Amino acid sequence: MRFRTAFSIIMATLFLGPILWVLLGAFRYGEVNISFQNFSRLLTYGEGLTTYLKNTLLVVVVTVLGSLFVSLFAGYAFARINFRGSKVLFIAILSILMVPHASLLIPLFIWLSKLHLGNSLIGLSFVMIMYQLPFSVFMMRNSFEAVPKELDEAAMIDGCGRLKMIFLVLLPAVSPGLITVGLFAFLASWNEFITALILLNDGSKFTIPLMLVNLVRGDFGSIDFGALQAGIVISAAPCVILFFVLQKYFVGGFTAGAVKG
Amino acid sequence: MAIAQKEILKRKVSIRSKRPNRGFRSTWVGWGFAAPAVVVLLLFFIIPLGYSILISTKDWPLLGPDHPTNFPDNYVKISDNELFINSLSFTVKYTAIITTILLTLSLGLALLIQEGKSRRNGILRTIYFLPVVTGLSTAALLFLGFLNPTVGPMTFIFNKFGMNPDWLGTPNMALTSTVMMMTWRFTGFYMVIMLSGLQAIPRDIYESASVDGSSRLSTFRFITIPLMRSTLALCLILILTGGMVAFEQFYILTAGGPDNSTVTIVMTIFRQAFSQFEMGAAAAMSVVLLLALVVMNILQLRLVRKDDSGDSR
């Protein structure tokens, strides 16, 4: 199996190469190998790194909390309540997956300003919740369905109302689903580029991905690649850390999300 | 007697499952719990979608109060729009290339990693998956630096071998470089889906095949591929759809250049809307794209369904 070993080594090098290059480059400044010069230049770039971080975090928090809230109740309804129109509603939610974001962004650009959510981070967050809706609802419906119905019945007998039951009895059982929903809502909103590009037109509202693209599209001559590398590390680090901490949810979510068809 | 009883029981069960407990109350409660999702669905999906169709029937400049109806002008004009036609053929070409590469490479890596649960395979899986974790725009920006002749290592390495590729300077190289970046970013993702498909194939099928003296190649051809059909079809749907709506990778890496040689459909739509300020024409293009994708998806979903019924899962 010499060939296979050689092939694996080559592939691993090709996959790791760009990551190593950006990591080494981000911390190098001139002849100094470990320096934070590149990062500190980002602090004063444009509106300043902290502004962009704050904007991104706002979008992330609203998207994650919103997705959890919406999918917890919808997932419960689809799994536990047999209501008229539930099938049509479920298919309507899944059909979001079929529509390219470009087809929605042109009307959203006009429609959001009518809702007074144009050029707003909250408006962007709501659109992100909508993008995540099929995955979140599908995930939570499956999570609730995996919980034995006896648990509900026992709680009913004890005189639990539905809301009380969800929060006190079922929540611990569906928490892995919630973590997956939250994780993917985080990744989507932290990294979203096109939607932010179209919906936000005020530099002070930009998110991290927009800041980074501005960095390479700067009108001031040459690109500051050191700062770009530092920015890429900042943008990728939370995702990589979450990957190693929540690896189990990651692969589970990707395969569940993939079977969504 | 026993058979009759069973029949009655069956009928009872079927009556029950056909007419479930759908009282007025439970319908009300169900919609109540689903209400937040319904609000998001209506406000940010269904209304914009309808709005998109409405805009596509009007002369709708980005600014300005009047939006006279001009249906079907926006749709008729699409076929005269040279930029749209060019971007359509470029997008199809790109999609064909990326589909071939991603499918082969991810299946190949999955097959290599799948055998044996060694520590080495675990590490390799993590390495291949790592790029998937970063955002697409981040990955594109990373390659912009990685391929840059002065700061990136690629030109330096190729120079050592006497080659001097102009990574983003010619139409063919710009496409090649973008395909390289997308391969780096997405192979691990499809590899993981392929792995879950491979793991669903029962071990004893392989064992009996090897007992029967089937060669590795024919085992792959006659056992692995047929049993993987639904997984392969699924990956195909995702890659084809992703290819047809490509935007970020080209916007960041090539900006559509050089000489508009790498302009995708979605890029044309956005240019029509936000550079030409013709929202109506852009909306019409996006409706056409949407219809094409829906047809493509429905055709392929049928393929997957058929395969699923044949699967022993």
Automatic annotation (TrEMBL), chain A:
Q: Which UniProt keywords apply?
A: Cell membrane, Membrane, Transmembrane, Transmembrane helix, Transport
Q: Where in the cell is it found?
A: Cell membrane
- Name the membrane topology term: Multi-pass membrane protein
Task: Note the CDD domains from the entry.
Answer: TM_PBP2
Gene Ontology biological process:
transmembrane transport
Q: Which organism is it from?
A: freshwater metagenome
How is this protein annotated for GO cellular component? Answer: plasma membrane
SUPFAM superfamilies from the entry? MetI-like
Which residues are in the ABC transmembrane type-1 domain?
53-246
What InterPro entries is this protein classified in? Answer: MetI-like, MetI-like_sf
Q: What is this protein called?
A: Unannotated protein
Q: Which residues cross the membrane?
A: 52-76, 88-110, 122-144, 165-187, 225-246
TrEMBL record, chain B:
Q: Name one GO biological process term.
A: transmembrane transport
Q: What Gene3D superfamilies has UniProt attached to this entry?
A: MetI-like (1.10.3720.10)
Keyword Transport included in the entry's annotation: yes
What GO cellular component entries does it have? plasma membrane
- Primary location group: membrane
User: Which topology term describes how it sits in the membrane?
Assistant: Multi-pass membrane protein
Whether Lyase counts among this entry's keywords is no
Q: Membrane-crossing residues?
A: 28-54, 94-114, 126-147, 173-193, 231-252, 279-299
Domain ABC transmembrane type-1 positions:
88-300
Q: Where in the cell is it found?
A: Cell membrane
Pfam families per the UniProt record, alphabetical: BPD_transp_1
UniProt keyword annotations, A-Z: Cell membrane, Membrane, Transmembrane, Transmembrane helix, Transport
Span of the signal peptide: none
Supply the name of the protein. Answer: Unannotated protein
Which organism is this protein's natural source?
freshwater metagenome
